[in-house]
Amino acid sequence: MTIHVTDDRHFELSTDHTSYLFNILPTGELGHLYYGPRLREPNYANLEANEFRMVMPVIAADRPEMSLDHLKQEYPSYGHGDFRYPAYQITAPNGARISEFAYVSHRIIAGKPRETAFPASFGEPETVDTLVVTLVDPVAELTLELSFSVFAAVDVIVRRATFRNSGQQTVALDRALSMSLDLPDSAYELYQLSGAWARERHLYHRPLTRGVQAVSSTRNSSSAQHNPFLALARPGTDEQQGAVFGFSLIYSGSFLAQAEVDYYDTTRVTLGIDPFEFGWQLTPGTAFSTPEAILTYSDDGFNGMSHNFHRFMTAHLLPPHWVHTPRPVLINNWEATYFDFDQAKLIALGKQAKAVGIELLVLDDGWFGVRNDATTSLGDWQVNVQKLPDGLGGLGQAIHGLGLKFGLWFEPEMISVQSRLYAAHPDWAIHVPDRRMTPSRNQFVLDFSRAEVVDAMFEAIDAAIVDAQLDYIKWDMNRHITELYSLALPPAQQKELGYRYIQGVYTLYDRLTRAHPEVLFESCASGGGRFDAGMLFYAPQAWTSDDTDAVERLKIQWGTSMVYPLSTMGAHISAVPNHQTRRITSLAMRAAVAFFGVLGVELDITRLPEAELDELRDLIAAYKAQRSLLQQGVLTRLESPYDGNATAWQVMRADGRTGLAARYQVMAEPNPDDHWLRLAGLDPAAAYLVNGQRFMGDELMHQGIFIPQLFDIRKAREPSFDQTHAFDFTARLFTITRIEEASV
Ligand code: GLA
């Protein structure tokens, strides 16, 4: 059993390698005791030890050592002496912001069914138990349920809070985070994934220091700027070893991920919906549930943390149907044609795609309304017959006739002022009456908190799916919300819009994926601007970045893989010079990077020279031959692009029998230092063939494979040497095959 309750007041949650302990405080609130490597036999008297502090508000005059300001807690409140930032805050009808949630009961539920109205984790009774602790505030007439789902085999605990109003008056929820965790010291470095358009999820870190440090999004999208994730790692932690906590939020809107180090060197980690611009009117008889937060701990460095996240998301978050379905190799026409295409061009692209082994053609932006650039027609999801005279149905038939699957781009949440939709429903665009509207990419955002808006988009997309027999949808979202206000909400509920908007997005995803379970969805937001666990619940893959440059992708894919599995990362081979950087890299290099993800092609292959087409055909065949490894295998990061000129990673099948490693070198190095590629996670006592050479696992991991320099300078001086050949931007691939069982 993963959940134990002792003495009616000590709760012990156990995963295979971690323990999570909390207790009931004398006030009835929940105290936190421990999270970390598994404890065999907790000594509760020790874990509950608590220092007497001068000048502190205490819980009662006869408990001078007990102050909420320094006790570790599970879901702390504000107003009874804890001056750190709380997990939640309410405003009662009389204006008071005090609450006192005291324990009344708990229950344990085996298994967690998949419920699709809102993204949430799920699992069979053998994989997850949930402890729900019920607390009541009799004055506010509110119930608080704190739930802890224990996914033992993947060392993950998922938390969520639910507030219920059992009284007669509306109570305002001003803050409702998904989790709070008080750690006993602050000797950690905080890792975050931050960036911007075209450089999403770069890895940054800084030592924790006293006070508040946070990443957040106020954009109503999880955002390219910061990802809803943070990790705390002991100094010295690297990819293969060290203690690290990872936190990720299953939500796609504004978030706050914060670490606060207090005056006694304890660290409070909180994660949830950003309280800035959030508010909820909890009316009598209703409930509000926070999104879920994922907590994990590993002793095995960042790879250990990532393996936990990857295994958890694969088994307990991604849509089950798609997890083991091989994802098609696609061609997307965006960088091939931008808005300049017609039916003949698409069919030519499709023919060539089929010839090189591509399986799915995705028609990107510009197929609808009168959209020939980014200024018009969002919202008018009817085909442009000037470009596509046979309609979506005709094009779908033609593409399917070539033996390809067919996919289409939508941006369902958006509206152009120049559109029939705007002419009919100007009030559907989010704006504040009599105020300036702030355009972004010439477009505005539809009010997805309104059911009629979601209905209209469902009808339009559903009709297109049926008409074109779509196999795939790329759901894009290319701007953040400004002038956040809904014409459909009363004044007191305006701060609900951010959450209600995301709920509308989830509702549309839910309806479409239930009506068309065979359609594969890929989420996108100006590239990877909404790459989060909430989106992945419906759309099992996401466009990682609009930056398709192979060198840039090393940092982006490395950062993304901190949290998200390979099967979620769209990675395309694009043209050179690259459209974002003008960099010229070889096809082999571009493919070797795009192989580590869900492979696509995004260039005009009708214009490729024959020799490159042949090479592309071979590369796609090689990817398809290894597809289940590259999409489902266990990724281990080896050499970080943030540390120097080289990047390396490997992917192994779960059974450890075969794998592929890649080492990329960005710039050529004259007379370089010695380089050895050390693999990881192999069986030290088993024999492996690496690119045909025999090694024992121990040598591969401890000494590594010698990496000779890319070129011998003496050869470059020979007259026969191709003087145009450059050695920047190179990739080497290593196939790994286990050939002999471990010798004892
Ligand atoms: C965004 C996406 C791109 C492409 C364009 C189309 O930028 O990230 O992949 O779909 O929109 O306008």
Short précis:
The chain has 744 residues and is of the alpha+beta class. Helix content is 20%, strand content 30%.
Report on the structure:
- It is a single chain.
- The chain is α+β, with helices and mostly antiparallel strands and 744 residues long.
- Helices cover 20% and strands 30% of the residues.
- Helix 12 (587-594) links the parallel strand 29 and strand 30 (598-602).
- Helix 6 crosses helix 8 and helix 8 packs parallel to helix 9.
- The mean pLDDT is 97.
- It binds alpha-D-galactopyranose.
- Alpha-D-galactopyranose binds next to loops.
- Alpha-D-galactopyranose is lined by residues 334, 364-365, 409, 476, 478, 524, 526-527, 543, 546.
Q: What is the residue-averaged pLDDT?
A: 97
Secondary-structure class: alpha+beta
> Count of helical segments?
16
Relative strand content: 25-35%
Biggest beta sheet attributes: 10 strands, antiparallel
The CA-CA distance between the termini, in Å, is: 34 Å
Ligand kinds: alpha-D-galactopyranose
Helix percentage range: 10-25%
Shape: globular
The counted number of beta strands is: 38
Q: How big is the Rg? A: 27 Å
Give the low-confidence spans: none
Features:
10-stranded antiparallel β-sheet; 20% helix; globular; 16 helices; alpha+beta; 744 residues; binds alpha-D-galactopyranose
